[in-house]
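Subject: for your reference before the review

Hello V.,

The reviewers asked for a structural picture of the protein, and I figured it would be easier to keep everything in one thread rather than splitting it across files. Below is the amino acid sequence we used in the manuscript, unchanged from the supplementary table.
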Amino acid sequence: MIYTITMNPALDRTIEVDGLVLDDANRILSDVRYAGGKGIDVSRVVNELGGETIALGLVGGYTGLELEGRLVNEGVLCDFTRIAGENRTNIILVDKKEGRQYLLNAPGPRVTPAEIGLFFEKVRSIPSDASFVVISGSVPQGVSSKIYAQIITTLKARGIRRIALDADGELLREGCKAGPYLIKPNLYEFRRLTGTEVKDMEGAIEEARKVMAEWGIEVVLVSMGPKGLLGVKGEEAYHARPPALEVVSAVGAGDATVAGFVHGLTQGLSFPEALRLATAAGAAVVLTPGTELCHLEDVEEILPKVELRRLS
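And here is what came back from the structure prediction:
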């Protein structure tokens, strides 16, 4: 079972318009809603790929009820912690006339210490035989930047070693200090983490190995958009590159990459083959609008077209 942790879930609304006019009525062509948040996206993709997953996190208000209901309808198992505040709503505004996309992300509710305590009861209840725990995304107001480090420490004390962390800034840096099994920054997040202006594959591999040595991390994945995915594990380093695709929306591609990789490992794939699946899943997301994420048939079609190259 793959468990995901999303402390700042969202209801994602994708609104399409045919051009924007200042100080006049703009007609909405479509308004579609999805349960969102990086860890939730991972669970949705794992479910789409045929894996088993349970989504954990903080939900509250009518938005939280709708978010959970949408996941239930998708067949994603949930075990959320209730909070008093209202979950955020993010808006993806798509201007079809200009071919532009605008992302409006809300900060999320303020969470109390008591609600964090209730949430940790859920964390401590994750079975020690969990195949993976994925911790992703931002945290709501009132939550320490060291929260992911505490979650990782708690899980490792229970004997859970396969922990994936996908975050940014202080959340990522503090979380790394607790020694997760895997981190998956994008190139910009990786540069902020290492404090270096990584410019090529060789430099990225060198910095990845420094991170692994300093904090005891076993796997570093660096997503690079259309340039693909860099994967480093011990002495192994691979570059997986997807085929050229027409991009509809890239929102959620990084989350699908994480989902494909951890699902692949739980299915017994080797490190390079899990990288290939991760790349195919991430690439398949760009074929769908807004935060619809990927479809299994697209992943299966892209998978044999992914170029995989071993690096020195």
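For the response letter, the relevant points are probably these. The two ends are 34 Å apart (CA to CA). The chain has one domain: 2-310.

Happy to draft the paragraph if you're swamped.

O.
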